[in-house]
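batch_manifest entry 22 of 60
target: SAM-dependent methyltransferase
source organism: Nocardia colli
requested by: lab member K.T.
priority: normal
notes from requester: please return tokens only, no post-processing; we will run our own comparison against the previous entry in this batch. if the run fails, retry once and flag.
--- input ---
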Amino acid sequence: MSDLNHVIDQSKPSIARVYDYLLGGKDNFAVDRAIGDHFKNNLPGSVAIAAGNRQALIRAVRDLARDGVRQFVDLGSGLPTADNVHQVARRHTPDAKVVYVDNDPIVLAHGRALLATDTKTTVFQADLRDPRTIREQREVVEMIDFDEPVAVIFSAILHHLNDDEDPAAVVRYWSEQLTAGSMVYISHFRSGGNRETAAAEEKLQSTFGRGRWRTDAEIEALFGDLEVLEPGIVPCASWRPDLTAVDAAERELTIWEQLIVTGLARKV
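--- output ---
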């Protein structure tokens, strides 16, 4: 990471690096770990938000690849970790193509190092709020065929956009680029009407100066005219859970597990 120090302001935390720290990664700075430690120590159990979100994404990519989707655009992808989108997809579709997009220069550097010899996966730095520029980026134009089904992924990223930045319009732009049979995946922090929600939301807003938790209805509205598939908008831990000793579909979720929800929708 030392080679990047001259281009990164280590006095400011990064969403991607805080998330990396909460998932047990090492690509973060002291300022990121301070935020992560606040969640670990002052909001015990809240790390389940990051873990549940990641596991739901893995299941979604698995199901998409099993259903024949071979192209993925991961917006706000974060730092590489175990079971990245391209790795999960290729277990079921060996020729899957993946474009990763994030605004953090560390994501760009680590992603390019990881994918240096991978001709079917690419990563570049861009702003989620400027979807047209992303769509017209050379890597997207050359990698993704929008005449064929594509999965667009918004994993734990749209809640970092304020209402005046119109996250629904961002999703709508991508939906309009897609052909029938394409998919859009969204996971999002959910308003819980409780002190845990308020504490978590206040900490992230005071840290990053942005973001808003939304209700289930507001999150579903982000999909616009897309067809939301079963089981609808539900907590990540309950979304198409694997069969385990303790089935998340049957057990009572913790308050933290209830604070992040997900949904998958299809363009018809």
